[in-house]
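Example 9 (inverse folding). The structure is encoded as follows.
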């Protein structure tokens, strides 16, 4: 039997974590659970210790971000020689057959580096809106044809990207592509990882015979300038760090010039908030030229885990079991 570790990164996820852990524990296919907590203060850690003593915990005193926290779990999984890691969001819930179905799908098509199930909304009565956007970009024609012709509806649909709320990742993918790049803190790291997986000629697929429910909260209301700045910065990084694209330096200079000129125009119009928006993006983009170059080099060089994932001694995060006392206790 293939071995798999489910890795869940938590941050103040008390309202979801019981349902998330219970769904994995009730899975038909056995999976050990490793939770990496990013400094929760809402009782998440105490709840896991009290209700799920079998779960392994890695505790961080600060928020490492989604990617770097997952890297801790993935590195340990590689050291233990598992066949797969299953990355699951703290606000996502698997069905009993999900993990096993994803593994079966990979066995049938070993060329895949990442396989994801269908993402439903939290109630399970419709598709997750963000996931549906990615899904409709894929080649869904074959799946629709199979439904209309009453063929097998449990199809594997190849795609360029699916968000990392529920990823089954093979050990060979981790060895070749590495982990999430540290240039990304939160958002964009899964886009970049998908780019690197495709660079290394591995596929990404959505298996329609497996499902999760994604209980994330819908966000309504106007987008603030600060939120828009974060989105634009992530978009810049995703494009510039895509090793399959050429001319990233010219792209960085064009974006720097564009935002710089718009900052000047905003000052002339006495729109100080907008001028600050463009000035910050211009200076940040140019200032990251070197980091972007290093990110791109890491994408194509071997030995990612030994070269990149080397926390300094004072940054090491010791693995703690549920019986161990909290730090400082």
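The amino acid assigned to each position is listed next.
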């Amino acid at each position: 039997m293939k071995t798999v570790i489910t890795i869940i990164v938590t941050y103040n996820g008390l309202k979801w974590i019981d349902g998330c852990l219970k769904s994995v524990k009730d899975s038909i296919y056995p999976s050990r659970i490793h939770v990496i907590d990013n400094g929760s203060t809402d009782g998440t850690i105490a709840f896991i210790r009290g209700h799920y003593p079998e779960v392994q915990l890695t505790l961080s005193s600060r928020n490492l971000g989604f990617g770097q926290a997952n890297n801790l779990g993935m590195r340990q999984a590689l050291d233990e020689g598992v066949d797969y890691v299953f990355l699951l969001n703290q606000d996502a819930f698997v069905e009993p057959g999900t993990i096993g179905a994803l593994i079966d799908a990979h066995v049938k098509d070993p060329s895949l580096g990442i396989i994801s199930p269908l993402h439903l909304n939290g109630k399970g009565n419709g598709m997750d809106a963000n996931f549906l956007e990615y899904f409709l970009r894929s080649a869904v024609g074959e799946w629709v044809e199979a439904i209309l012709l009453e063929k097998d509806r449990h199809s594997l649909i190849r795609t360029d990207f699916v968000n990392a709320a529920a990823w089954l990742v093979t050990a060979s993918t981790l060895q070749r592509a590495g982990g999430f790049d540290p240039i990304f803190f939160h958002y964009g790291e899964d886009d970049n990882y998908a780019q690197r997986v495709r660079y290394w000629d591995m596929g990404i697929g959505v298996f329609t015979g497996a499902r999760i429910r994604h209980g994330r909260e819908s966000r309504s209301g106007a987008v603030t300038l600060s939120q828009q700045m974060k989105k634009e910065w992530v978009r810049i990084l995703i494009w510039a760090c895509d090793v399959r694209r050429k001319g990233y330096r010219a792209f960085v200079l064009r974006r720097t010039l564009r935002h710089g000129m718009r900052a000047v125009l905003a000052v002339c119009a006495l729109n100080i908030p907008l001028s600050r928006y463009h000035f910050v993006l211009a200076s940040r983009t140019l200032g990251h030229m070197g980091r972007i170059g290093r990110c791109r080099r890491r994408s194509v060089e071997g030995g990612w885990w030994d070269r990149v994932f080397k926390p300094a001694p004072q940054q090491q995060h010791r693995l703690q079991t549920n019986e161990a006392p909290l730090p400082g206790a």
